[in-house]
Structure formats: structure tokens, C-alpha cells
Amino acid sequence: QVQLVESGGGLVQPGGSLRLSCATSGFTFGNYGMSWWRQAPGKERELVASISSSGLSTTYADSVRGRFTISRDNAKNTVALQMNSLKLEDTAVYYCKARNLDRAYWGQGTQVTVSS
After folding, report:
1. Which among 50, 36, 32 has a CA at the least distance from the CA of 99?
2. pLDDT the model gives residue 82
3. 102: exposed, middle or buried (C-beta count within 10 Å: 0-12, 13-18, 19+)?
4. How does DSSP assign the chain, residue by residue?
5. Predicted pLDDT of residue 58
6. What's the sign of the alpha-carbon dihedral 77, 103, 98, 50?
7. What is the per-residue pLDDT across 25-61, written as a single tens digit (0 to 9) for each?
8. Predicted pLDDT of residue 74
9. First to last CA, the chain
10. pLDDT at 68
11. Would you say 61 and 46 are in contact if contact means Cβ atoms under 8 Å apart?
């Protein structure tokens, strides 16, 4: 049974930091590219950051580049998103996604709220 379970969300003030984690099981983690997406109320889901299966290649949305860092641990089957200098507009539900050529899996999401 494939599982992706996000954790680490919460309420934080502008300028603060959070670290999201996605624990996975049920598939061969090292064969999948991983990514973090987010969806704010009334908006479409958008790609935040991605990392290749090896971890050697990463990409970021322009809106988070320089503030967020994606990483993965292939020994622990986890992917993380370190979020610094958070802004009000980073408020959203954050999802992790696993993808290879044949299939994709999503987690259930974790809420991040940036508010003063």
C-alpha cells in the first residue's frame, strides 16, 4: 500500500521558518522524483520545488527560490522542504508527490498558515 504522509505544517509569523517532511512507503522511493506542491484557497495547485530521484537536481518556483530548500533521504524514504523567510502568500496546503514515468502518488497535505 502506497503511503505519503506529510507533517510539519502549522501556524508561523511572517519571516519565520517551518520544515515539512514527507514519509513514504509502499514503493521504491529511490526510483521516483519527488516534489512539493501547494494549493491556496481559491487557487490552482502549483509546483513549489522538485528533486530528482538521485537528489542531484532540484528546481524551484520563482516565488520561493532562495527561501525554500528541498532535500531527500533515500535511506529513510523521506523528502523534506525547509521553508525560511515565510511570507503571508506562502499560506496554503502543501502536498508531496512522487512520480516516475508510469505513475504518480500524492500525500494528503499539511496546512501551512503564515499570519501575524
Report:
1. 32
2. 98
3. exposed
4. --EEEEE--EEE-TT--EEEEEEEESS-GGGSEEEEEEE-TTS--EEEEEE-TTSS-EEE-TTTBTTEEEEEETTTTEEEEEE-S--GGG-EEEEEEEE-SS-EEE---EEEEE--
5. 98
6. positive
7. 999 999 999 999 999 999 999 999 999 999 999 999 9
8. 97
9. 40
10. 98
11. yes
Name the pairing type of β-strands 110-114 and 10-12.
Answer: parallel
In contact, 115 and 91? CB cutoff 8 Å: yes
The angle subtended at Cα 62 by Cα 53 and Cα 109, nearest 5°, is 60
Picking from 101, 86, 81, the residue whose alpha carbon sits closest to that of residue 19 is 81
Which pLDDT band, with edges at 50, 70 and 90, does 93 fall under?
very high
